[in-house]
Amino acid sequence: MSPTILVVDDDEDILVELERTLSKRGYSVTTTTSPDIALGRATSEDFGVVLSDLRIGARSGIDLCERIRAACPAVPVIVMTGFGTMEAAVETLRAGAFDFVTKPFSPAHLDLSLRRALDHRALSREVRSLRSRIDGQSGARGILGRSDAMGEVLEVVGRVAATGATVLVTGESGTGKELVARALHDASPRAKGPFVAVNCAALPDALLESELFGHAKGAFTDAKTTKKGLFLEATGGTLFLDEIGEMPLTTQAKLLRALEDRKVRPVGANHEVAFDARIVTATNRDIESRAAEGTFREDLLFRINVVHVELPPLRARGDDVLLLAKVFVRKFAERHGKALMGMTDDVERRLLAYPWPGNVRELQNAIERAVALARGDLVVADDLPKRINDHAPADILVSGTDPTELCSLEEVERRYIAKVMEIVGGSKSEAAKILGLDRSTLYRKVEKYRSDSS
User: Fold this and answer.
1) What's the chain's Rg over C-alpha atoms?
2) 95/72: higher pLDDT
3) Which class would CATH give 314-389?
4) Residue 141 clears pLDDT 70, i.e. is over it
5) How far is CA 310 from CA 64, 151, 313, 427, in A?
6) Where are the domains of the chain?
């Protein structure tokens, strides 16, 4: 069905012209000269976009825009105005309008604005659908976050979940890469199929190849039976290859061949077997630098990096720290039989100030410890791990003349890198540009300071 546009203007001639123009471009059009009727229909019918004039008789299109956005926030509003001033633009956008177009406008310009609004609405629906699926999962598998950084992640996941595209998930250890892989699986047409995960760094080289591709009976000493391997175990579902950056080069070559041919050859077998599984990979390494150094195949990187999802570190997610902490407090209070109401303001300040080198996994462990130690009805600062209470902020302030308040150049560098990473939302590429470092150098420094603080 073609999207239906609700057009609101007090000029009947303009309504007739807009209905004719938009109908030629494939839209269904409903028109009205009454803001009250427009509001009633917008809240009771499923319009793709509302296109409203800035002035509707004695009424303001801005007022109508605000009322529609309050009643049905999913419907984008585009405001038409004959006053092409910055003030008019700011006024419409502050009212929650998706866009504004200045009269007289070309049909192509108006069509472009409408298409963008419709695409935005469709994408918002996908993201809401994904969020609802994720929110319905258990705490161990749910993705929580209201920050812009996590909103971008969920947007990409929502757009790609229904496809069969191979996805590479990157991010620091503990950011929740497997959660993203599970979300992709659960929101895909393969949701009823198996989700099979393997940590490529946890298995010896020879065993990893056998686990992935399977083996024939008698292929090696302990191969007493035929094993079909994880690629075939995941048929109809998703195969998640975690820590793919640690995979040996010989196995990388075989993985590339499997991905290109959609077939695997079990170890010791003389035939190939087709598989049908969506592949999602993840790494906490700077895999592009490893490819440049020759420790990871560049052609395999291109093959697995069809869609890239970069998870932000927890320190770049703002108040998500408190959202997650409150969820963890409730979870562990119930698990350990504690009647806790929450955390003190002091605890919240300390959680926000700490950089969380171990990310969400570290936060979860810290909160479980605090809940276990809590004696009252609130988690207090003394319940937190010492490293969180003793943490010095990343801001570099030099005031006064007390030598005990000064720090080493290495500590200054650590704090500055942490601050830059926080400001750019955890993007190593952007941080490297600002710091004047190549990605591999920045990665080594971040890893060093993370290990030093753990």
Assistant:
1) 27
2) 72
3) mainly alpha
4) no
5) 39, 12, 9, 8
6) 4-124, 148-310, 314-389, 403-453
